[in-house]
């Protein structure tokens, strides 16, 4: 609230700033991340600047005009626009909450009160489980192989030219293989430390690479990172050789490798960034001649799909990727026709037994 017995040269601006500060404190008390809070405050300031009005003057038409402007300029994703509408609605709910008294302040000083500006009739409704680009999909087994072959070849090509970058290319190939083998997000891969590679007592054949401890997993908006344990499955055991080669032969050649805890380091001894990992995928994808609409996250989708096709239970796959809801995991899963036909064949054989001859009915 506003400080008592203080005369403001611009009362409206002072009230607006006090509203923002009060909302900031409320969110901070909920232990939301500073980045989330800051982004929300900037959004409210953008709406104020766009409309030329203060929050107690906003009407539904102002919110609609703002979103329409964003849609025609910078915002293309439906999910982004919805998140903006939700954040603005949260701010308006804070102003309308009688426990904070802002409605009374506005009525007394300006003869107006805040109102909700987004409602069912003018906001984006969440009706679809997945609203992303439909061209983004899991890679087939052949595409995975082509991607990794291209990534491996980059190191040799660069070395043959006699220029710097061969070690970095070898590292990039190892990163991409690890992301696929463990179903990681790019930030999760970037934030891995050496200590996050562990043994699995139930699978000693994998040595020190049977478990990856993810300590910086994606969390609900504003919440701290989620942790999870990802197990290496036998079908992905080829990554053991990849990781062992990285740790014993390649990483020690980076300078200085022992001063940084990160699993993936740069030529200058720093942590490899998510952006650099994304660039490594794009380079390998383009070298392999794969669809340019495929992005790095498609490797995570591929892991989920292939684990499912390997026969792992849905709950196991859900835990592997750290999804709170099974419906989220199902969005990632796009099993092949070959796999579905395999299930169909097993079902028909189970039902018809010796009377099934494998021919269509």
UniProtKB/TrEMBL annotation:
Residues 134-345 form the Tyr recombinase domain. Pfam families: Phage_integrase. The keyword DNA-binding applies. GO terms for molecular function: DNA binding. The keyword DNA-binding applies. One of its GO terms (biological process) is DNA integration. Keywords: DNA recombination, DNA-binding. Belongs to the 'phage' integrase family. This is Integrase. It comes from Mycobacterium branderi.
């Amino acid at each position: 609230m506003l400080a008592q017995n203080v005369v403001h040269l611009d009362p409206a601006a002072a009230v607006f700033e006090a509203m923002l500060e009060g909302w900031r404190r409320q969110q901070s008390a909920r232990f939301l991340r500073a980045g989330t809070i800051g982004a929300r405050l900037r959004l409210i300031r953008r709406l104020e600047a766009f409309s030329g009005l203060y929050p107690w003057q906003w009407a539904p038409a102002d919110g609609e005009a703002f979103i329409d402007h964003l849609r025609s300029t910078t915002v293309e994703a439906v999910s982004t626009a919805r998140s903006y509408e939700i954040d603005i609605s949260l701010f308006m709910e804070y102003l309308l909450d009688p426990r904070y008294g802002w409605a009374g302040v506005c009525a007394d000083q300006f003869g107006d009160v805040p109102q909700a500006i987004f409602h069912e009739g003018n906001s984006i409704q969440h009706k679809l489980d997945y609203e992303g680009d439909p061209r983004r999909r899991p890679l087939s087994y052949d595409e995975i192989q082509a991607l990794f072959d291209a990534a491996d070849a980059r190191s040799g090509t660069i070395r043959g030219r006699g220029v710097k970058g061969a070690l970095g290319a070898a590292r990039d190939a190892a990163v991409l293989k690890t992301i696929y083998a463990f179903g990681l997000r790019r930030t999760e891969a970037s934030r891995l430390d050496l200590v996050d590679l562990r043994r699995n007592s139930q699978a000693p054949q994998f040595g020190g690479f049977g478990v990856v401890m993810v300590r910086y997993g994606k969390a609900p908006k504003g919440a701290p990172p989620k942790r999870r344990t990802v197990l290496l499955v036998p079908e992905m055991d080829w990554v053991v050789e990849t990781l062992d080669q990285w740790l014993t032969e390649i990483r020690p050649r980076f300078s200085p490798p022992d001063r940084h805890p990160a699993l993936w380091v740069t030529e200058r001894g720093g942590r490899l960034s998510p952006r650099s990992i994304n660039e490594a995928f794009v380079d390998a994808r383009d070298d392999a001649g794969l669809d340019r609409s495929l992005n790095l996250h498609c490797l995570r989708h591929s892991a989920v799909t292939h684990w499912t096709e390997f026969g792992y239970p849905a709950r196991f796959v859900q835990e592997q990727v750290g999804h709170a809801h099974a419906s989220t995991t199902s969005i990632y899963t796009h099993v092949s026709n070959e796999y579905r036909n395999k299930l169909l064949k097993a079902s028909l054989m189970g039902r018809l037994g010796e009377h099934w001859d494998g021919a269509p009915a």
